[in-house]
Amino acid sequence: MTAPDRPGLRAARRARGWSLADAARELERLGRRTGSAGATAASLKSLLSRWENGHATPDAGNRGLLARLYERTPAELGLTAETPQPGGAARLRGRLAAASAVGEALLRAWGEQLEIARRLDDETGAAGAAGVVRALVEELDRTLLHASAPGVRARVGVLLARSVTLAGWQELDLGDVESAWRRFARAREAASIATAAVAPIEAGGEMVDAAIRPRGAHAARAVGRSASAAAVEVRTTADEVCAEAVAGQAAVLVGLGEPDAALAVLDAVERTDAIDLIGALDTGAAGPTLDAVGAGDRDGPATAGSPPAPETAPDVPPPAGRTAPACVTEGGRAWLAAARGAALAAGGRNAPARQVYDAALRALAAHGLPPENRAAVDPPEHRADAPDRPDARSRTGVRPADLRRWRAQALAALGEPDVVSTLEAALAAGIDSARERATTHAALAVALAGRTAAPGTATHPAETHARAARDLAERIGSVRVVALLTHGADRSPEPAATAATAGGHRHG
C-alpha cells in the first residue's frame, strides 16, 4: 500500500545539504559502524527515494538508523510506525466470526438493500446502480465463503445469486460480455450452494438455527414460517434465479452472434434437469424433442411432431432433498423459454420461436390456478396490455406481460405482424425499467424501419423510437441498446433477439 509523502524525511536530508547519493553513503557508513550494515549505497539511494516519496516504508531497523543519521525523532521524519495489519490467521478468524454472527436482521437488511439496488437500477441503469450492486455482491460473496451454518448458507446463497445476476445484466448492458458471463456463472454456483444447503435442513426438520431464527421456541413460532415452507421458498427461488442466469449466458452468446451456441447451453441445462421444455409446459401433449424445437425451416412451419395448442400447465414443485437447482418451476421455464425463443429468433427460425414463447405464456398465465381451472386458460393474447391475474407471476417477478414483450422484441426484425402493436401497447401501459424501455424503443425502431410513414408525418416513427432509445441509452450508460440500433439498421435478427433477454432481470 502506498504511504503518504514524507516531507520531513526529505527536509532533513536537504537541511544537511546532501543529495540522495550523499545520504545513501552516510547511511551505509552508519550501518557499518553500528553493526547494522545491510544494503549497499547504490541500493540505499533507490530506497531513500521510495521512502521519501511514500512509495515504500522503511522497516524498524532502518527507521532507527534514519533517526540517528538526521538526529531527529521518527515522528519528525514522518516515520511513525503504521498500525500493523492483521495476519492471515487473524483475518480469517475475524471473517469466520462475522459470518457466524449473521442473523435475521442482517439478512433482511441485505434483502432490502438488494431491492433498493433494483429500484435504482430501474431508474438509472448500470450508470447509477452498478457500484451499489458490486458492493453488495462482494459482501455476500465474502459471507457465503466463510459461513458454515446451513440456514445462513441457504439464505445468503439465494441473495448472492439474485444480486450477482443483476450485476450480470448490468455488465451486459455496459458491453462487458466477459464479465457478464462470469457473473451469470457465479449466480449459478450460488444457487447451487443454496440448494445444497437446504437438503440437510429438510432432513433434520430445522430450517435454521439461532443464526437465522430468534432463540427460544416461542420466538421461533412467532416467525410464523415452518421449516418445510422456508426450504421450499429457498429451493424455488434458487431454481428460478439459476434459470435466469442461464438465460443471461444465452443472451451473451446471442449478442456475440452465436445463437446455436446459446441453444447448446440451454439444451445442456434442460437435459441435465430432465426437462422437455415444450412437453413440460404443455400437459397432455407429447412435445417435440429439444433438438426438434431448435430445428426446422428458418421461416417455415414448426417441425414435425410439434404438439397441438396446449390447454393446461402443471405445477412441478422442486423435489425435496435435491442438491442442485432444477429449472422445473413456472418461473424457471419462463426464463428458459425466453432465452430459447430469443436464440431461435436470432437464427431466423420464427415458427419454433413462437411455439416456445406461446407455451411459456400459457404456463405462466395458469400459474397459481387450481388444476381443474387450468384448462380454461385461453390461448395467449400477445398484446402487452392484456390483463394479467395478480398471482400470475413467478418468484423472480416474471409476468405474462413480460413474456409478451420479450416475444415481440425477439421477433421485431423478422416481420411478425403483431410485433408493433404489442410493443406500442407495452410502452403505453408503462415499463418501470429504463433498460427495458430503451430496449422496447430500439425493437420498435427495428420493426418500423422498413415501413412507409403515414402521409404528412414529419419524422418517421422508426427515427422517433430510435432517438428515444438513444436518449435512454445515454442516460443509463447502455452500450447494448446502441448496438441493437446499429445492427437493426441492417435488418439483422440478432440484436432484436438479444433484447428479448438482455433486460429481463427487471420487469415493467
List keywords for this structure.
mainly alpha, 0% strand, elongated
Largest sheet: none
End-to-end CA span: 45 Å
Mean pLDDT: 74
Unreliable spans are 205-225, 274-318, 369-377, 489-508
State the order of secondary-structure elements, H for helix, E for strand.
Answer: HHHHHHHHHHHHHHHHHHHHH
- Output the structural class: mainly alpha
| Helix fraction by DSSP (H/I, runs of at least 4) | 55-70%
Number-wise, the strands total: 0
Radius of gyration: 30 Å
Shape: elongated
**What is the chains' assembly state?**
single chain
Fraction of residues in β-strands: under 5%
Structure in words:
The structure is a single chain. With 508 residues, the protein is an all-alpha fold. 63% of the residues lie in helices and 0% in strands. The protein contains 21 helices and no strands. The longest helix is centred in the first third of the chain and has 43 residues. The two termini are 45 Å apart. The C terminus is likely disordered.
What is the topological layout?
Elements: H1 7-15, H2 20-33, H3 41-53, H4 60-70, H5 88-100, H6 104-146, H7 150-174, H8 177-204, H9 217-223, H10 227-255, H11 259-272, H12 277-281, H13 290-293, H14 330-346, H15 350-365, H16 400-410, H17 419-429, H18 434-448, H19 461-476, H20 479-488, H21 493-502
Helix pairs in contact: 2-3, 5-6, 6-7, 7-8, 7-10, 8-10, 10-11, 10-14, 10-21, 11-14, 14-15, 14-16, 14-21, 15-16, 16-17, 16-18, 16-21, 17-18, 18-19, 18-20, 19-20, 20-21
